[in-house]
Amino acid sequence: MNLTVIGTGYVGLVTGTCFSEMGNKVYCVDVDENKINNLKNGIIPIYEPHLATMVIDNQIKNNLFFTTDLREALNDSNIIFIAVGTPQSEDGTVNLDFVFTVAKQIAENISRDSLVVIKSTVPVGTGFKIKKILDENKINNVNVSIASNPEFLKEGVAIEDCMRPDRVVIGTEDTKSAEILKELYGPFVSNHDRFIFMDIKSAEMTKYAANAMLATKISFMNEIANICEKTGANVQNVRLGIGSDKRIGYKFIYAGCGYGGSCFPKDVKGLINTSLEYDYTPRILSMVDEVNESQKMIIVEKIINKFGSNLSHLTFGVWGLAFKPQTDDVRCAPSITIISELLKKGAKIKAYDPKAIRTFKYEVDSENIEYVNSKYDVLDGADALILITEWKEFRSLDLDELSKRLKQKVIFDGRNIYSKRIEDEGFELYQIGC
């Protein structure tokens, strides 16, 4: 099948590449000429395991093409995915300018009957607004159908999620569109039927509801961790106790210093604002967001309790800047809040992350941050170590190395990955809910 994916951000690039891996002819379109030229040369703008190899291989096979020419792509496609960004506005609402602009451009350039599939995360009802734009602006006498196909990709394992989805949600208003998408996704679910068909509005809501539920589990466990600290209970034991209940499970119930990324924060706020537009106050979601924002300050509070509010004489080594392992994404990452607050209080920072140093520099610009090339170089001259992102290389500690390099044997573990046994070696270990 021939298809066009508009937008080469995280979702568009991964989705288009995976479709090409299955033998489809895929055009990935973007207005950023520099990005397109880099992609043609195998230079990937994001870090995602296995993605670079697949992009290069499928270009060689002539399955994957990158272009800024939308008309060229549409002339050879009849399935069009909209995968452009839907950033959060200052007031918390979802900015749909890119989506609506692309819809108008599709209408002005489409030359055959086509199916337009909304892959971008959009508020309930957006699909029908897009259909109206398509119908009002098309210059050729063609039939255009729409569908919603929300993505459920986890950064760090996005290729696996795309190639082996646990479900494929398809929102349509007609049988033909459903059958087209079922055929397209068939090779991804050949061993098990994982299609879930529904109306467009329900598909749009499904995406928000899924992320809001996962965010709720995280904030709930962080709330429990904070209560554990007050009462003397241990949240690690509590997690094991409740996770063994099959109705709850172990996923997304790890206490820590808050969630980040491009999805959970934005989608929770987006669903809150959608609710308010319909005169409904979403009390649980509002608290999920509030708990998460305050949770990012937990490590800062522990540092102040230990060292005082004036940190001008101290240097902190930081392990991990990305919002989660296996990505270079720092959008809404707890590291931004933690480091920014420490800088405000006069501290100096030495930081290391396997992949996210470049992206973090765009978010926090300070002469008081030194970036180093290895995890142990962070420790030289540091008064304490702060673990923010639980990359695998941080899980096993060389305590002799820490003892030699740290000025003070103090560790702030923002992800509860270390054993209390290191306290037997003279370290002070500060965790969350333990």
Known CATH architecture of the largest domain = 3-Layer(aba) Sandwich
Q: Percentage of helical residues?
A: 40-55%
- Span from first to last CA? 54 Å
Order of helical and strand elements: EHEHHEHEHEHEHEHEHHHHHEHEHEEHEE
Structural class: alpha/beta
Structural domains: how many = 3
According to CATH, the homologous superfamily of the largest domain is NAD(P)-binding Rossmann-like Domain
Percent of residues in beta strands? 5-15%
Q: Mean of residue pLDDT?
A: 96
Which fold name is given in CATH as the topology of the largest domain? Rossmann fold
The beta-strand count equals: 14
Largest sheet: 8 strands, mixed
The outline comes out as globular
Name of the CATH class of the largest domain: Alpha Beta
Question: Which regions contain 5 or more consecutive residues with pLDDT less than 50?
Answer: none
What order do the strands of the largest sheet run in, or round the barrel if closed?
Answer: 3-2-1-4-5-6-7-8
Count, helices = 16
> Radius of gyration over alpha carbons?
24 Å
Q: Which short descriptors sum up this protein?
A:
434 residues, alpha/beta, Rossmann fold, N-(1-d-carboxylethyl)-l-norvaline Dehydrogenase, domain 2, 3 domains, eight-stranded mixed beta sheet, 42% helix, globular
Please provide a written account of the structure:
With 434 residues, this protein is α/β, with parallel strands linked by helices. The protein has three domains: 2-198, Rossmann fold, CATH 3.40.50.720; 207-294, N-(1-d-carboxylethyl)-l-norvaline Dehydrogenase, domain 2 (Orthogonal Bundle); 296-430, Rossmann fold (3-Layer(aba) Sandwich). Helices cover 42% and strands 14% of the residues. The protein has 16 helices and 14 strands. The strands form two sheets. The chain has an eight-stranded mixed sheet with strand order 3-2-1-4-5-6-7-8, with helices on both faces. Strand 12 (384-387), helix 16 and strand 13 (410-413) form a beta-alpha-beta unit. Helix 5 (97-109) runs parallel beside helix 6, helix 9 packs across helix 11 (264-277) and helix 9 crosses helix 12. The termini are far apart. The model has no long low-confidence stretch (mean pLDDT 96).
